[in-house]
Amino acid sequence: MQVELGQKIIDKIKADSLSPKPRWHFLVREWLVWMMGALALIVGAASVSVMRYLAENSSWAVQAPYGQTFAGWLLLSLPYFWLFLLGLFLWLFYYNLKHTKRGYRYPMIYVAGIALFGSILLGLAFYTLGVGSAIDGVLGRKAPLYAHVFNPHIDFWSAPEEGRLAGLVVAHVEGEDTFRLIDRKRGEWIVTYNPRDDIFVVVGQPLRAMGTISGEQSFEAVRIMRMRPGREYFQRFGPTVISVSGSGMHRNK
Amino acid sequence: MENQPLESELDDAELVRLSLADPAQFSLIIARYKDRLLRYVRRLGASNLEDAEDILQDLFLKVYLNLNDFNQELKFSSWIYRIAHNESISHFRKRQARPEAYSIPLDTPGLQLLANDLALDRHVDAILRDEAVSKALMAIDPRHREIIILKFFEEKNYNEISDILKKPLGTVASLLNRAKKSLKETMPKEWHENK
């Protein structure tokens, strides 16, 4: 029987003209697995760079005066979408590495550790190269649900009744301590501020203000800060191009 | 026929090289591994000889088609056992058949080795003990059974098991410990030497 089996196999190889798959087939497959792994690591790192960039708008020290606990601030500020994306691509990296020729030899904890630290290190490098800012910019301009999904800080800073106002500066007169701002609901505000913060008030740029509502659509800011993540998002609400001269504010359609 | 005396002198890598050059030489690999793999496939649970031979034929064809994927850092026997393992599991899955309990040919040396490792009472009748170990082996989780078969019946070391099952060494060690523990728990308590 066993002699027959061997002969049967050789006969089948000959009858069906079977031949071993070429070496390049396996090399390409291995290369693809590595490339997919590298791609997963890069996407994971890009998520880290966006998270690091988003953290520029997030500071517990700033938000603590609003009576928020550290845990509450953390829950509110965590970029869930980016964390999910990072988790997904870490898993893809792990899966691909495990499917390389020798990947199974490495313990899960090492591979997961390499994936996590690799993503963080590469992500921080991407952040310094401006990748986080660029991705946030593209999403801010185009992505639906940007403020809810990609940048949870926008919601936090869009609560004027609680003393937090964010929006785009649409008009400002040099030497005066007020400017006009359009928030994400396209509501227009006149904001009074301390000239100390003058540096942050730039027409066409968004900012964050802490203070109180002082009248109908008026806000008195005690502190003004830049709003870097979400900068492009607020451009969606700028209905006009603004020019400013010493004698007043002009809006050009 | 001329190749017969040479076969035992050639190492596996050399046989692979010859098979790549001439398909007929692949019969040397078949001759070297068919008995071992037939036993292994049956131990994994191929219910009858016919089934086992079907698996064997498919797996040798797969080995032939993938000869260029053989990585020389690995022992050829580990590589071919890996294919045998995967082919058997996929065959059972396709047929939606559970490995059959009493078809598995478990030889006495393997059973003895296992009984010693499990520290079973040496005074128990050997035939009774072997029967009970065989039965217990069929009652445990298939993943546990597979690793015990590789260790005690195929006599593979940890590195080889790691390469066959594609698991890290640490996982192999802990899986084997769990498998032995589970097997021992399935055995009658009065047979445990350290009750």
TrEMBL record, chain B:
It comes from the Bacteria. GO terms for molecular function: DNA binding; sigma factor activity. Gene3D superfamilies: 1.10.1740.10, Winged helix-like DNA-binding domain superfamily/Winged helix DNA-binding domain. Keywords: Sigma factor, Transcription, Transcription regulation. Residues 30-97 form the RNA polymerase sigma-70 region domain. InterPro entries: RNA_pol_sigma-70-like, RNA_pol_sigma-70_dom, RNA_pol_sigma70_r2, RNA_pol_sigma70_r4_t2, RNA_pol_sigma_r2, RNA_pol_sigma_r3/r4-like, WH-like_DNA-bd_sf. This is RNA polymerase sigma factor. It comes from Candidatus Falkowbacteria bacterium HGW-Falkowbacteria-2.
